[in-house]
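It would be a great kindness if you could assist me with a short task in structural biology. I am sending you one protein, given as its amino acid sequence and as whole-number tokens for its backbone shapes. I would ask you to consider whether the tokens describe a fold that such a sequence might reasonably adopt. The full record is reproduced below for your convenience.
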Amino acid sequence: MTDSSPSPFTCNTQTRAGVTLLRLAGELDLAAESTMNNAVAAVVAARPTAIIVDLTELGFLDSTGVRCLIVAKRDAEKAGIGLTVRGAKGIVEQVLTITGILPAFGEAGPASPQGQPTLNAASGGFLARLGRRAGWPRRNPSP
């Protein structure tokens, strides 16, 4: 018999040459939301030149996890820090592909460089439409 209990979420950071690697493992869901948000806030506050989120060991990602990644990307961009993901596979890659946001997490570099789509553009405007339905205030249009 195999143990089907969920893997606990862990988030480890390592900074080298100004680039912070944020390694996620386990399940990024509602139970892990505050841990993820606190880790991202601490990394952004440290002002690295770039953030790479490694999803290699992440076994599960739900809508809350997607939201965590979107918020992390937005917060990093506000601080002028590029945030990318790597190592998405299996169900994690499927979720990011189906939601349409995977292209927004391209190569590391400055926030929203030319050629790298914003989250809204990568989702075909879905996120902006969703925000309007939820009553979120309008922001300047994405380039």
